[in-house]
Design brief:
With 119 residues, the chain is of the alpha/beta class. It contains two helices and eight strands, in the order E-H-E-E-E-E-H-E-E-E. The radius of gyration is 15 Å and the shape is globular.
């Protein structure tokens, strides 16, 4: 790639579209931009995050550590506590990393999501 721009989107393919879209819409409270029967798109800053059905995807993530989605937030402790009240189970509570704080949790397909508060 000769000309570098920005990464503008990520698609998470799933067979559990209803469960996944409910989690991202109602648990994480992401704002949807496009909703169809087998596709939903969210905007997070300049990034587009999409969930979609793919006929070749079966079950949950077989390697949870392969990809992690990072969501930058201003106050990680506040977001962490909000998500706890919505029954999100964290695999890593907010911890200081020197450059900022990080907390990790799983979505319904066992993809790792992280909250980042960058100093």
């Amino acid at each position: 790639m000769d000309e570098k721009k920005e990464l503008v989107g990520v698609i998470i393919w799933t067979q559990n579209f209803d469960i996944m879209s409910n989690f991202y819409l109602n648990t994480l409270k992401l704002e949807s931009k496009t909703i169809r029967n087998d596709f939903i798109n969210f905007q997070w800053g300049k990034m587009k995050l999409s969930l979609a059905v793919h006929k070749d995807i079966q079950g949950s993530s077989k390697d949870k550590n392969r990809i992690m989605l990072n969501f930058e937030v201003q106050k990680i402790q506040v977001v962490y506590e909000q998500l706890l009240t919505r029954k999100v189970e964290f695999i890593r509570k907010p911890e200081d990393e020197g450059w900022g704080k990080v907390a990790s949790f799983l979505d319904p397909d066992d993809n790792i999501l992280q909250l980042l508060e960058i100093y």
